[in-house]
Write a structure and sequence with these properties.
9-stranded mixed β-sheet, 28% helix, globular
């Protein structure tokens, strides 16, 4: 049934234990750790989407309501290349109502026509996240729910990410200039292991994230059960 998923499963089996779990067919959820971390959360989600689509000829779908695009900006073609998503690899869908947006994401995932879907959402129900997870696994694709703040509700996502900005890496050519972007990546809930966190930086040449050496696999700060549900 999941005819496109062998590549993602293979990469997951060979993932270093000191690194975050590799993308696999199913639903993930990414949330900004705070109001100032929205760009970091969006960037991390885009790198996950690009990683899932690497070596896959299918496009990816970006879905967002108009108010998200007005408040946080629209995808910019040259900027998307930095995350490994050139213009001919992604499609944009908008809908005024979240229910319509989630329906579009669900249909795209189960069709098998896309390598992944990134949907900017506010509060998908537990039932809807279960549907999205099932459809993603059926279509051999990665589903990503992007949220502007840490949720306190339940989700069927295989991993829930919380992303915060971190000071940039040193610039080797100019100590006064910013270096590679760095993010604090927390897996606050995951099916394949305990919560953990990593300091990661974006490689400007490849568009891939890498763990900053010596700072990998730190246990995440324990939080109340309802916050990590």
């Amino acid at each position: 049934m999941i005819k496109h998923s062998s590549r993602l499963r293979e990469s997951s089996r060979h993932q270093d234990s000191a690194s975050p779990p590799a993308p696999a067919p199913g639903l993930e959820e990414t949330a900004a750790a705070g109001p100032g971390a929205w760009a970091a959360a969006a960037g991390f989600a885009l790198t996950r989407l690009a990683q899932a689509a690497a070596g896959d000829s299918r496009p990816v779908l970006l879905a967002a309501p108009p108010f998200w695009l007005r408040e946080r900006g629209r995808p910019f073609g040259p900027g998307m290349i930095r995350f490994g998503l050139p213009q001919n690899r992604w499609l944009l869908v908008t809908a005024d109502k979240e229910a319509a947006l989630l329906w579009a994401a669900e249909e795209a995932l189960k069709s098998g026509a896309v390598a992944g879907v990134l949907a900017a959402v506010e509060a998908p129900s537990l039932v809807m996240t279960r549907r999205l997870d099932l459809c993603a696994r059926e279509g051999g694709a990665l589903g990503l729910a992007l949220r502007a703040r840490p949720p306190d509700d339940l989700s069927a996502a295989r991993v829930r990410w919380r992303i915060a900005s971190a000071p940039s890496a040193p610039n080797r050519l100019d100590p006064e200039a910013p270096g590679a972007a760095r993010w604090r990546v927390e897996a606050v809930r995951r099916r394949d292991g305990p919560p953990a966190s990593w300091l990661m930086e974006l490689d400007d040449e490849t568009g891939r994230l890498r763990v900053v050496p010596g700072l990998a696999d730190h246990p995440a700060v324990r939080r109340p059960a309802h916050a990590a549900a």
